[in-house]
Amino acid sequence: MHRPRNDMIAETRAKLIGAARRAFGTLGYANASMDDFTAEVGLTRGALYHHFGDKKGLLQAVIQEIDAEMTARLNKVSRSAPTRWHGFVEECLAYIHMALEPEIQRIMFRDGPAVLGDISQWPSTSGCVASITRSIDQLKADGLMTGIDSEAAARLINGASSHAALWIANSDDPQRTSKKAAEGFRTLLEGLRTAKA
């Protein structure tokens, strides 16, 4: 039976992303050989170029996949918290703590910025800021957060959490840095909380 072209394209892309993710996560972007990870899944370098343009394009696709997984995990953290305020704080802190996970640390917070540039300029950042803005709007509507401009607060929180994750990922002692970053970040967020929260 002949498989639909779209299924074949999706399968090829998934194979390349999976192989690249394993290589980038273990060897790092610079040391990952395109020939090795294409051969691993029975594909050619030509398939990589066709679907992603180049190795950098493939890294972007890997980062999009990891980012989507991180977002799903963060949403679960906020949904399982006892209150909306706690959910907001725990979601922010969970993002920072993810910088301790080897794959995320290497791909998202070391190689990603080195290859793709400033993390605040990545396409996913605008969606992240929009999501934080919506959360802040809701917290303000519930009387749980002070009357700060929602977009300004979202951009500052997003920038602080991204910077904290980068600090952890590039630290000589990530565990110690993570503890310091989380404590500092929690203190910053508490300054935005109303007594009602």
Automatic annotation (TrEMBL):
One of its GO terms (molecular function) is DNA-binding transcription factor activity. Keywords: DNA-binding. Gene3D superfamilies: Tetracycline Repressor, domain 2 (1.10.357.10). InterPro entries: Homeodomain-like_sf, HTH-type_TetR-like_transc_reg, HTH_TetR, Rv0078-like_C. Residues 10-70 form the HTH tetR-type domain. Residues 33-52 bind DNA. This is TetR family transcriptional regulator. Pfam families: TetR_C_41 (PF21351), TetR_N (PF00440).
